[in-house]
Amino acid sequence: MTQLGWQCISDEWEVVNYSRPLPLQNIVCQLPGESRDQIILLANYDQSPGTIEGADSNASGVAVMLLLAQILAAEQPWPYTMILAATDGQAYGLLGAQRLIDTHPDPERIIAAVSLNNLGLDLYEGLGMAATGLSEGYGPLWLQQTTQVAARAAGDLWVPQTQSELQQTYAQALPFTMTDQGPFVAAGVPALGLFGLLADEDRDQVRELHNSPADTFERQSADTLAQSGRVAEALIRQLQGMVEFPENFAPYLVYNGGRQLVPPYVFYLIARALAGLFFLASYLSGRRLESDYLGAVLTSLPHFLSLWLPFIASILLLYFFVIIGLLDEFDTYPATPKDPELMNPRWFIIIIWLIALWEFLQIGRRLEARYVEHRSRPVFGQIRAIVFLVVGLALLVALIMNPVSALAFLPVIAWLFIGNRHGRRRGIGKYLDIVLFLVGGLFIYVLIHFIGDSIVAVRLLALWYLLLGISVQMIDFVSAAMIFAVLAAGLALLVNPPFDDRDAKDEPADDLTGSPTAPVSDEPDAGDENVDDADAATLAASEGAAQ
User: Fold this and answer.
1) Does pLDDT of 456 surpass 70?
2) Other residues' Cβ atoms within 10 Å of the Cβ of residue 372
3) Which residue, of 217, 246, 275, is where some domain finishes?
4) pLDDT-wise least confident of 110-119, 181-190, 372-381
5) Are residues 295 and 216 in the same domain?
6) Which contacts of 73-77 are long-range, i.e. CB under 8 A and separated by 24 or more positions?
7) Domain annotation covers residue 512
């Protein structure tokens, strides 16, 4: 590279993975241009532990980059400075790319960054473009459109495809990526990743091939590499010829082959509408019983906390497992795809964690029982007030941080229909409420499904990966706490507050729900003319007993 005119440096640093130091190294080369503004081309050269040759992932990307280094050097000087980076630690959470943007002296001078991944397999039928940021952000549309314009201008090249509408929504709602454009997008730098596209019938085969000994050079295609390399070259030439660069970023959604665009304000409107819906439901639920809405919320707050705080304790327990060595410490992502750490869950850890969570929940219930011993027991309308307030607040946070993530809350609308005008359903009606709770809980399934497809390819293992992700704060504490707050809110609609002996009239109570175990009917009591009468009567009885 230096003989071609490139100025290269080696950047060495160290992270902690598998609870031990892991040395890493980036190789960064610069070809000065007429301007100090830069175009960055990067490809990771590391591979997962289970890989031997790593031909497609990611020798193919490195090969394309090295050939482009020769072409670019032969035609210098260029209008803009070129940076080529062979990055390390991609499999552990894009560590090399993150290091590159973190140590860059002036990120505002980066015009665009292009990541090259998985470009040579003989099964590829085209190229795709990844725009997802690392934990946040989504790449600008103009860069994807510029890539397509450059490929079309060449006449005989694959035209890179934008992600499907569903993939775009997933990627913006849950910004998680395994390609090196991620840290740049998260830092606000225009970036995308080029990768090979597969036919649907080949996906499972290639999933088995990647990050395994089967990823050999025999499966590489000269034609595929030529197409990939020429598209990357066309993009660089297009960028080098541009004088002005747009600044539009996410959120957005392109559809109809990229010819039509859903603008950002639509996502903000949806998030605001959802938040407003739950705030209104909360207010109406609290005001039905008494004029003091705040009183209704405060009365039911201990019930919510008795279910949410145990989940918080379970998060802290996972952190403790890392501290004492029961779980390994990782810098960013836990392990790598198909790593034995992922593919072989430590079941004793899972069992211990589940038992501890159950005990935390029981402690929460006992503390709530003591709290309400001399206070009024919350009725269902008051519980609905705190539940929908919590969901509304979570949507408000989503609106501020990432409005597209509010779409993941759409299933939670089902929780608005738990119970009826008489309160919680009884008898067979309880099962309907459970179904509605599970439907609302699909927001958790969306997360598991997405991670399962993106990383471990086995959705059951995604549960183990989620625990590991929480333990190393890949899912940070605030995000995990918010997810569990919404889950606890849903549970609060199903789980009764601890039953007061004064109200139970010495009937035996169910240990799980705190409800009396006497047979109940799905039909409303004769006195239950409406929700106001039923809940208000219970409220008055509880307050009278408290006095």
Assistant:
1) no
2) 21
3) 246
4) 372-381
5) no
6) 73/4, 73/5, 73/6, 73/31, 74/4, 76/5, 76/31, 76/33, 77/32, 77/33, 77/34
7) yes
> Are 217 and 275 members of one domain?
no
Region 352-370: what's the mean pLDDT?
94
CB 363 within 8 A of CB 305: no
Given this model, what pLDDT does residue 249 score? 67
Q: Is residue 253 part of a domain?
A: no
Supply the range of the domain harboring residue 193: 2-246
Q: Are residues 275 and 211 in the same domain?
A: no
Residue 238 shares a structural domain with residue 374: no
Domain count, the chain: 2
The first and second tokens of residue 505, run together, are: 């009239």
Same domain membership, residue 292 and residue 222: no
Q: Is 20 exposed, middle or buried (0-12, 13-18, 19+ CB in 10 A)?
A: exposed
In this prediction, residue 448 has a pLDDT band, given cuts at 50, 70 and 90, of low
Helix (H) or strand (E) holding 469: helix 459-471
One domain, residues 176 and 323: no
Query: For the chain, how many residues are written?
Result: 547
- Note whether 228 and 282 are same-domain residues: no
For residue 66, the SS3 value is helix
Sign, Cα dihedral of 367, 369, 373, 379: positive
Q: Within a domain: residue 260? A: no
pLDDT band at 401 (very low <50, low <70, confident <90, very high): confident
Looking at the structure, tell me whether residues 224 and 317 fall in a common domain.
no
- Residue 254 inside a domain? The answer is no
Mean pLDDT, residues 40-47 taken together: 94
Beta strand extents in 244-352 (DSSP E only): 253-255, 260-262
Strand order in the sheet with 110-116: 7-17, 20-31, 80-87, 35-44, 110-116, 191-197, 126-130
Spell out the residues 6+ positions from residue 505 whose beta carbon is closer than 8 angstroms to its own: none
Residue 306 has pLDDT above 80, yes or no: yes
90 and 97 in contact (C-beta within 8 Å)? yes
d(CA 126, CA 203): 14
